[in-house]
Amino acid sequence: MRSLSAAILWSVIAISVSCVAVSPPRIVRIGTNHSPDFNYIDAAGRPTGFGVDVMNLAAARAGIQLQWVKSATGPDESFASGIADLWPVVTYFESRKESMHLTEPWWRLGTMMYTREADRVRSLAELSGKRILFTSPSRRFVPTLQLPATAVIDIVALPLDALVPLCQGKADAAWLDMRVVDSVLLNRPTECEGVRLASMMISEGGRGFSIGARFGFEKQAERLRAEIDNMALNGELLELAARWKFIDPSDTALFSWLNTIRLKNDRARLTVAVLVGVLLVSLVFLVLLQKARQRAEASARARTQFLANMSHELRTPMHGVLGMTELALGTELSTEQRHYLCLARESAQRLLVILNDILDLSRIESGKLQIEHISFDLRDVVHRSVLMLSLQAQEKAVSLREAVDEDVPRFVLGDPARLQQVLINLLGNAIKFTEQGSVSLLVSVQSAGHPPRVSFTVSDTGIGIPEALHKRIFESFTQADASTTRRFGGTGLGLAITAQLVRMMKGSITLESQLGKGSTFTVRLPLRAAAPPVIETPTSPPPAPQRTAPNSRPLHILVAEDNLVNRTLVERSLAKAGHRVRSVEDGRKVIEELRKSAFDAVLMDVHMPEMDGLEATRLIRETESDTGRHIPIIALTALAVRGDAERCLEAGMDDYVAKPFRPDDLMDALARVSERHHL
Fold first, then answer.
1. Which of 408, 433, 407 is nearest to 511 (CA)?
2. pLDDT value at position 566?
3. What is the pTM for the complete model shown?
């Protein structure tokens, strides 16, 4: 019996967890500093420049949310300290790959070698025994060149540090980036006045600039790099380069490269001439299809985001309604008052069911809901589905029966949670629309086809559905007619979700119904017979969840919650359990309070003004890395979509409680962190 109870408990937990949808895109920190000509920090302290514009446009195309972080150091130090995850412009050299991930270079600069006219060289071989000054951002970087083994290479920081010694005869050659050549030569230092210089372009000596990434963020860097390729193909990259004066008549290295490409295109033009007409027509169709797909995707994203936001905004006041009702029910009440409050709680719980339906629909339509393929007990899922609705059927005096044919395999491969959701939706609808008579669930095997399909037939003697609505009944927000909504309630989402879940499980659903004579829904799923799941039997029974007991130490808890009703609810719940509470309205005040006083734990809302809970948690954890202390932080949030719990834990939180919650949920979370951190 204890094993069965545990199985039921874990199934309920699995269903609850599966009702949360997908998280918003993860924010990626990209570092920058004042590094002309690629990046600047403007007068307002904001990053700007060619590199910044390129990364922002690529991120928008790749669906990556960037957060620019100013750094006083370069990429190597910023990655080592964890300040940044990406860096937009990093000089590419092989040894650097030991400390970071580097994409293929997305921009290159040519170089020029200068010598005195009297010592002009016309090939690299003539540099034997010569002293060559390179300008480089790092002493680890020297262009890969076929230099004579006897050449002496010195690295200097600035172009003038290379040019002045050349003019003074202290060096034999100066190696300069093309981007600084004009500015240096047009503003010659006094040491170079009257000195005639000779130049030689070194195409293989240029510098390549990559996107650098801290290990763990390679995918984001490569996605940005791929989008930059697309920007180069459609001309956007060159437009940005021209805007920031990276392309002008003096940039001979780039135009030399463009001329080389033009010559190659001239030779290739004869080959592709025959295909131009076909390509033009195909391009028109591709553009039209791309625009249509972008409009459809934008519409789907907007709808999904709207549904997720609406669910979040509704969950916050719902948490207050349910929580305050529970607090009121725990006080001295008359019989009439208790009856009214129970009715209010039941209404709020029904509204919460509707919110969960909306979340399920948004997850399905955005393609974020996943179907499992595991071995499970089919008869157990069927029986538990019927058992969960037996009380509802008894209250309406409706007979509820189940029957499973003997040839139906007991253990099958599929998704038990989603199957149970389908059965509960169908059985719940059947009971809701049946005022007298019976509801039955029959499970059988349909032997035709491979693999064999298991058939689930739900029949009722209810009001029935007009034949004209049989196809529309599986659409979102659809019911038989307006009178059905007024009489029985509901949003019409249940059957839409059911139909989409069945399709995701590679099955089919059909309907047979006559108005006034009842309905029969049949779901057919390809469920293969499977071996029984391996269940590890513990040597001793697991301990019961530990909540705050009378003899446990009262905790000093800091609560961050901007909603007054929810803040009051949390304060009262904690005070009733014997804890001391201090409340603030945003993350910035949390940090201030932690500096002034000692607390045992923090209950942190996520969406707050001034500073949200995720940012506050990250700052707290950064501070603790120096002190060695760790204060438990529990997320207390109306964000209840899939991935939100993981996002909170990644930010450094220790546990997660979704709103609306029961006081017991809060006590369980406190018990878990108390045991983990020995509070």
1. 433
2. 80
3. 0.41
